[in-house]
Design goal:
The protein is an alpha/beta fold and 517 residues long. Helix content is 34%, strand content 21%. The protein contains 15 helices and 23 strands. It has helices at 11-21, 35-40, 79-87, 112-115, 175-186, 195-210, 223-236, 254-266, 276-283, 289-317, 331-336, 372-381, 386-389, 409-428, 482-495; strands at 2-6, 26-30, 45-48, 74-77, 91-93, 99-107, 121-128, 131-134, 140-144, 152-155, 160-163, 215-219, 240-246, 269-274, 324-326, 362-364, 403-404, 440-443, 448-452, 455-464, 467-468, 476-477, 499-504. The protein has a nine-stranded mixed sheet. Helix 7 crosses helix 12 (372-381) and helix 9 packs antiparallel against helix 10 (289-317). Bound molecules: xanthosine-5'-monophosphate (XMP). Residues 293, 349, 351, 393, 395-397, 437, 472, 509, 513-515 line the site of xanthosine-5'-monophosphate.
Length: 517
């Protein structure tokens, strides 16, 4: 792999994704990795990421100097560029000047292999205090800015390169070209990482792991469980059984999507558990959000355990212990829970699909090395319906946490109708790519006066919560076109009974969370 050395900012994952977009497999390692640990991974190239520190700080994250002696092509970015300069005999100066945001960089000479062919002046994204004031011996300066004399350097013989700016962010005009040039031209790596290869590799791995054993999978209707299940099915066919629990808190058409389109496109053996009544009974009279989440989580596990024990009994009768369980764990989960970087930054959300810890299963996790966009690409390659592969995030507790107040069958019906209209209009307007997700919330305990025809109405408001986000940790409200908002509002108030008002949530996160509960 190409190893991305993580110096502790959020940039490492982005860099790893850009490398894969260039068709080369990448993994993230913490900056504390020793030269021996790095060598053991047999890297074909290294990229040193940016980081929040100054090389002058007392506990500044450092790099085992042996790593730059391994003879591996290396690209340093921002802080990684400075670490490289320092270790190889250049000078890093603490000038007190800061460069932040869009900056003009000018090529020095032809820009070398790294920047060659790019315009002499380009817009790059900077974020640094210290700067490299002298390149190490044997290095050529490839670019500079007004504030930074050495903004990029290279040593073609050693295949060492560095840039002060962030080529991984879209605000750097020729950013991806820098990464592509480094990987393909400088390091000579072929672009052979693509969905087809990933599928072939995972299928082989899954077969090796489970042999002839039986495998259980829980489908939630979301992208990750849909793709991981389809991959395992591709590998082991009918040794796999998928379970889908309909808790009644799904959106309009979701169950049908799974039961019809998904099954038709994969051939997966699916068991649907209709638990709608059980969930409604358990939720009766409850309006506290945390309470609702707990109840939904508990009922989910109960329903799953019931069907699981039936399936295990069935398998046991045929001499198989049904030992394997599919999980749609993604690479960011692995990295964020310490599996990749040592930075613990785990989301506190527990998925309703999250299964009890005492289950005696061995996990099959075919998406563990993949990012979300790669998972979607694989899903498409496997022929899954676009409605599932392109789906925006949806919380495990479903519509249960989008009804502010008690959850009842009537209220679910109202919310489902309003949500379907909003989704339909957003898709029709071509806005799905711009929004991260758009929760539609029913304020069931609020009423307001309205007028319709000749009559006074006393109905409930629906809240639209369109947000833009990179990772759901922070978000901004999406500036949707007025005519689209107007269309959604008109349709909801006309077509959904008991709703006489539509309001727009214009709060960023923080301070508001994306969901209302
Ligand atoms: P908040 O509301 O915390 O949501 O800003 C952040 C993201 O997480 C989703 N979300 C959940 N997902 N189980 C999930 O699987 C949950 O309990 C849960 N709660 C919120 C939310 O839709 C958003 O994408």
């Amino acid at each position: 792999p190409v190893l991305v050395v993580d110096f502790g900012a959020q940039y490492a994952q982005l860099i790893a994704r850009r490398v894969r977009e260039a068709g080369v497999y990448s993994e993230i390692v913490p900056h504390t990795a020793t030269a021996a640990e790095v060598a053991a991974k047999e890297p074909v190239a290294l990229i040193l990421s940016g980081g929040p520190s100054s090389v002058y700080e007392k506990d500044a994250p450092s790099l085992d100097p042996g790593i730059l002696q391994l003879g591996v092509p290396t690209l340093g970015i921002c802080y990684g560029f400075q670490v490289m300069a320092q270790q190889l005999g250049g000078t890093v100066a603490n000038t007190g000047l800061r460069e932040y945001g869009a900056t003009d960089a000018s090529l020095t000479g032809d820009g070398g292999v790294l920047l060659g062919g790019q315009p002499a002046d380009q817009n790059v994204w900077m974020s640094h205090g210290d700067q490299v004031s002298a390149a190490p011996e044997g290095f050529e300066v490839l670019a500079s800015t007004t504030a930074t004399p050495v903004a990029a350097f290279g040593n073609a013989e050693k295949c060492f390169y560095g840039v002060q700016w962030h080529p991984e962010v879209k605000h750097s005009d020729y950013g991806q070209d820098v990464i592509v040039n480094f990987l393909h031209k400088a390091a000579g790596l072929p672009a052979d990482w693509n969905s087809g290869n990933v599928i072939a590799e995972q299928v082989a791995r899954i077969r090796a792991q489970v042999g002839s054993g039986r495998v259980l999978s829980a489908l939630s209707g979301g992208v990750d469980s849909a793709v991981s299940t389809a991959l395992v099915h591709e590998a082991v066919g009918d040794q796999l059984v998928a379970v889908f629990i309909d808790h009644g808190l799904l959106r309009k058409g979701e169950r049908e999507q799974v039961e019809n389109d998904y099954v038709a496109s994969t051939g997966v053996r699916l068991i649907t558990v209709d638990a709608r009544e059980t969930f409604l009974e358990a939720l009766a009279g409850v309006s506290d959000p945390e309470q609702k989440r707990k109840i939904i989580g508990r009922e989910f596990i109960r329903a799953f355990e019931k069907v699981q024990s039936e399936l295990i009994a069935e398998a046991a009768a045929e001499g198989d212990p049904m030992r394997f369980l599919v999980q749609g764990t993604l690479y960011p989960d692995v990295v964020e829970s310490g599996g990749g970087t040592g930075t613990a930054n785990i989301k506190s959300h527990h998925n309703v699909g999250g299964l009890p810890e005492d289950l005696q299963f061995e996990l099959v996790e075919p998406l563990r090395t993949l990012f979300k966009d790669e998972v979607r690409a694989i899903g498409r390659e496997l022929g899954l319906p676009e409605a599932i592969v392109g789906r925006q995030p949806f919380p495990g507790p479903g519509l249960g946490i989008r009804i502010v107040g008690e959850v009842t069958a009537d209220r679910l019906e109202i919310l489902r109708d309003a949500d379907a209209i909003a989704r339909e209009e957003l898709t029709k307007a071509g806005l799905d790519g711009e929004i991260w997700q758009c929760p539609v919330v029913l304020l069931a305990d609020v009423r307001s006066v309205g007028v319709q025809g000749d009559g006074r109405t006393y109905g409930h408001p629906i809240v639209l919560r369109p947000v833009s986000s990179e990772d759901a940790m922070t978000a901004d409200w999406t500036r949707l076109p007025y005519d689209v908002l107007s269309k959604i509002s008109n349709r909801i108030t006309n077509e959904v009974r008991e709703v006489n008002r539509v309001v727009l949530d214009v709060t960023s996160k923080p301070p508001g969370t994306i969901e209302w509960e």
